[in-house]
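Hello, quick one for you while I still have it in my head. Could you read through the record and tell me how the tokens relate to the sequence? No rush at all, and the record is pasted right below.
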Amino acid sequence: MTAPGKGRIREVQRRLRAEQGAFAPKPVLPVIDEVVATVLSQHTSDTNSERAFAQLKERFSSWERVAAAPAGQVADAIRCGGIADRKARRIQQILAAISEREGRIDLGRLHDLDDTAARAYLESLPGVGPKTAACVLTFAMGRAAFPVDTHVHRVATRLGWLPAKTAADRAHPPPSGNQVIVSMAHWACLRTPLEVSRSAAARRYARICGRAWSAA
């Protein structure tokens, strides 16, 4: 398999833009907020995770208060996001680690690091893997990272941008990769609706993107 070039990715972008309209990026959050929001997004819908994040921020006036609160209170605040007890423990572990390293709960200084160093820092936090780190780099820091969740992995595989047997956790490009192509490719995958996991929609977007996708 050959990695997609700029021309191929631009054509997919063009067709998706014609089909769906202009891309509306999500609001940019502070780095620490994006870390927590991404933890809350695991194993649930965007609607539920966004509601859980809003309720957590409403319940606690600062991340220091979240870190110091009984775990049960944090879990109650995010209950609508699913697996609340586990997520509450993970969030508090992350906040504690940041506090110990930084002397406060703030990750603003990551903006001063290059991509490789910022990714390494994020992945060193408890329970933060390549996907969470890439989400933070992309959405909070404007870096050309490539978060690969189940849906992005499926789309990229169908487009032939990943070998068929590549696991999602092995699909994240290295920070040293071609950043223009990484950024363009992630935009194209993000623009493809989640329902491509269904075969009828997959065939439809195969026509849009000009490639015969295999059933998954």
In short: Residues 84-102 form the longest helix (19 residues). The chain has two domains: 6-25+145-209, 31-140.
